[in-house]
Amino acid sequence: MNMINVLLADDHLMFREGLKHILAKSRDILVKDEAGNCSDVISKVLQNGHDVLVLDISMPDKNGLEIIDQLKKYKPNLQILVLSMYSEDQYAFRAFQAGASGYLTKNATAAELLKAIRKVSVNEKYITQSVAQKLADAINENIGIPIHKNLSNREFLVMCMIAKGNSITSIAEHFSLSVSTVNTIRSRILKKMNMRNNAELTYYAVKEGLVI
Asked: What's the CATH number for 4-136?
């Protein structure tokens, strides 16, 4: 039996312990490594061989979306399963666009988690029935797309940081950008979303459940 080597990435130790307990019951899945922040994720992906990365979006040093594309460039055969507290409506599409192979919310069952890991490990996409239905509805019924879906991933992440109360300076430091560049991104966000100020962005992001 070929073992599926997994890297667990979540900043909550207790949650990782729970995941390890679930996965230990499987004879074909091995938790080879774990990480509590994005820096550790990148380091361990580069140092060790993993088949599947189970990645939380909400990490303390970066948003998980920021490193998916980076990781796929380093390790194109690494399969990434996002496991998040955010609903599929909010982040699933962006995770897939960034290069993830699957998306689950943290209220998924143990059986769903095992199924998702096994599926992405053989280079297949794992998509839940609810996401598949929403995609079908959007195609068949031409349902309107939320305005934040028009933002690039960088713009989306900057919007979320603004909504959380981060200053332009702290956002610039986070992304290693100049303050003027972040101000330019902020202006593009406001224009694309037809909003006037940070207060409107914050209200929208909270209303849509994009920040917690």
From this structure: 3.40.50.2300
